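<backbone_tokenisation>
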Amino acid sequence: MPETEHINFSGMLGRFSPIGLEEMESIKLMNRIDSKYLTNEQTLLEVLADAAEAGYRVLETGGERISAYDSVYYDTDGLRMFYDHHNRRLVRQKVRTRCYVNSGLTFLEIKRKNNKGRTKKKRIRIPQGQLQSFSANPEACAYLEAHSWFRAQELSPSAETLFCRITLVNPAKTERLTIDTRLCFKNFRTEKETSLQDAVIIELKQDGRAASQMKGILLDHRVKPVRISKYCIALTLTDPSAKTGRFKVKVRTIEKTIGKKLVTI
């Protein structure tokens, strides 16, 4: 697969004041509203310039302002979690392991969406070496059974997602913004790989009682909200046998946003 030429955001991020992890984790958005947006790296550069001017701060950990993530999504042999999403089941779950590459911290995570559209996440720390298999970890297996519908024996790695993340917070600490770039996907079952090239996925988490300055910045740059799942896009692009009709529209939206076709090998 040809290497995508990416924008280096380090210089732009140097214009932001930092915020540490401890202060970031102390920010509680009790009446939280989550929204996702899709754009490209060139537009993101313009959004970041406006955010810096507006006084947003950037999360800095270990001297780094861009963090690498490695996530492995698990599913049943029949892809139940994928199809629950595809078939618009309101109450659904996803199971993944996630490694924060810069620190090596690794977790088993269970994401649960209720019929109100709210997502809650529970997680337990696991050794980094268990990213692609935690079935030999009795504590992790018990945690999975206690907090999900699944047992470890039913699940196996389905898709891996790798990306780089920038996290911003507004001056009033009423909203957080995660910005994911350089997204790459690998399917463990078909062995196919792909990337979203210079596409960018933004997630805005805001206090529903406060006005969002970032929404105005995104609107100024014609960045519109979109519902998108990394796992579902990964399978749509890498599993030709899966029923993916609903998500093919999302793929076309990504291609229109970056002005090029996505390639799977």
User: Anything to note?
Assistant: The mean pLDDT is 94.
